[in-house]
Amino acid sequence: MSHDVMTGQCQCGELRYRLSGSPLSCYACHCRGCQRGSGSPYTVSLLVGRSDLEVLAGTLGERRFRMPSGERSWQGCEACASSLWYASPLAPQIVAIKPGTLDDPERYQPVAHLWTQHTQSHVRFAEGATCFEEQPSLDVLVELWQARSARVEGDLS
Ligand SMILES: [Zn+2]
Ligand SMILES: [Zn+2]
What we know:
Layout: E1 5-9, E2 16-20, E3 25-29, H1 32-38, E4 43-49, E5 53-57, E6 60-67, E7 70-77, E8 83-87, E9 94-97, E10 113-114, H2 138-156
Bound molecules: zinc ion (2 copies).
């Protein structure tokens, strides 16, 4: 397993963070909650261990709110309100980073598209993309990620 160290920051640059350790999965979600929360057709989430994240500069703000699927915690820059990651208080050891905030935003690419029953008509998928009409289990997302990581490491060796 490779142990990556990456840095990222918010839109205004006050909040900087460091990510170490290997992500658990990465996926794009097209659900209405993600569309409303981001104002965009879909969001990308990179699942990482909370203990692998370290805030280097700036003030991390937090808002808690309730969704039909449970309570959520938004965490982001207190100054510019960029979303950095979301957490569920039920599983606080895992957070979903918004990988567009990484200094290398293409380093991690989604292994699947979720809630494609709500995909907006102008969005196009890459050929062979894995799509789920609704929410697959976390295990499925982790397995897809591990399968891709194994292929990539196989290609490099
Ligand atoms: Zn900021
Ligand atoms: Zn979603």
